[in-house]
Amino acid sequence: MKPKIALIIPCYNSMKFLPQCIESTLSQDYENYEVYAYDNESTDDTVLYLESQVQLYDKLKMVSVKNVYSNSYREAFEHAFENVDTDYLTFIASDDYVSNDYVSKCMKIFAHAPTKIKCLQSELIGTSTQGFTGKQSHVYRNLEEFKNQCMIKSPVNTPTVIYHKEIYPFLKMEAHEKKELDCSGAEDYDMFCSLADNNIFIYPVPQHLGYFYRWHEDQCTWKVRQQKKSIDYDKIIQEYWKYKWGL
After folding, report:
1. What is the pLDDT of residues 93-140, one digit of tens each?
2. CA atoms within 13 A on the CB side of 41
3. How far is CA 55 from CA 35, 68, 219, in A?
């Protein structure tokens, strides 16, 4: 049997775009997968919608977690890695969507070198009410190049990252001696640096495998950018790892 993968969808007041996200994940042509929708104490109709969909689809499961960290999916992240028993795991934003062959394309790449590739990211295509907004991908050949790029910005398309269970112990969103990063929405940037520090390579796939990233004014990305006007989280992360890596 092919390896099993879990698609995790963190949700908080997500009804505007959630149906398209759920439909896209449940339409995958890959057989061995499950979808987990994590509700983060939503106050809209998200829970009612998810409860109705769980009754219709065996592959879909709903999990409720406390809303502790603002602008972050850390609650779902931590719970999933501790409780979901699959070979691979990935997080899909509730306002995004994927093509029906997205998972199968990603899993084919892992199959080429299963003992070598334990984590990968791929190109994403941005979308908005005006249509497609362009592609975004990252290219680096080794950990040294990855670390150098981390000194400029996060060289990772976070929602496209897929993790193998062997690296789960290294996946922590607790900031390294930088408590100001908690609830910042930038914890994943710090975590990717930590993976590199543990010699875990996020294999970059410089082509679009099927992830569509939606830009809109209510998304967490915009809120984090507003926070950065008062606190430069990227700089905090970069200075910490620059010192630790001696760059």
Report:
1. 999 999 999 999 999 999 999 999 999 999 999 998 777 778 999 999
2. 7
3. 13, 28, 28
Whether 107 and 218 have beta carbons less than 8 Å apart is answered as no
Structural contact between residues 48 and 162, judged by C-beta atoms closer than 8 angstroms: no
Helical H runs in the chain?
18-25, 46-54, 74-83, 102-112, 143-150, 187-197, 220-227, 233-245
Question: Where is 205: in which H helix or E strand?
Answer: strand 203-214
| Amino acid 224: pLDDT | 47
Element containing residue 158 per DSSP (H, E): none
Q: CA 9 to CA 94: how far, in whole Å?
A: 6
DSSP assignment string, 55-82: TT-TTEEEEE----STT--HHHHHHHHH
What is the phi/psi pair of residue 42, to 5°? -65, 150
Helices (H) and strands (E) in the chain, counts: 8, 9
Pick from 141, 9, 22, 26: nearest CA to 76: 9
Please give the model's pTM, rounded to 2 decimal places.
0.91
Tell me the three state secondary structure of residue 136. Answer: strand
Q: Find out if CATH 3.30.70.100 is the number for domain 5-245.
A: no
Q: What is the pLDDT of residues 150-192, one digit of tens each?
A: 999 999 999 999 999 999 989 876 665 555 555 556 789 999 9
Q: Is the per-residue pLDDT at 222 higher than 50?
A: no
Q: Which residues pair with residue 98 across a beta bridge?
A: 211
Residue 208's SS3 state is strand
Domain definitions of the chain by residue range: 5-245
Q: Residue 87 corresponds to which tokens in the numbers above?
A: 């070979």
**CA of 6: how far to CAs of 82, 87, 103, 135, in Å?**
13, 8, 10, 25
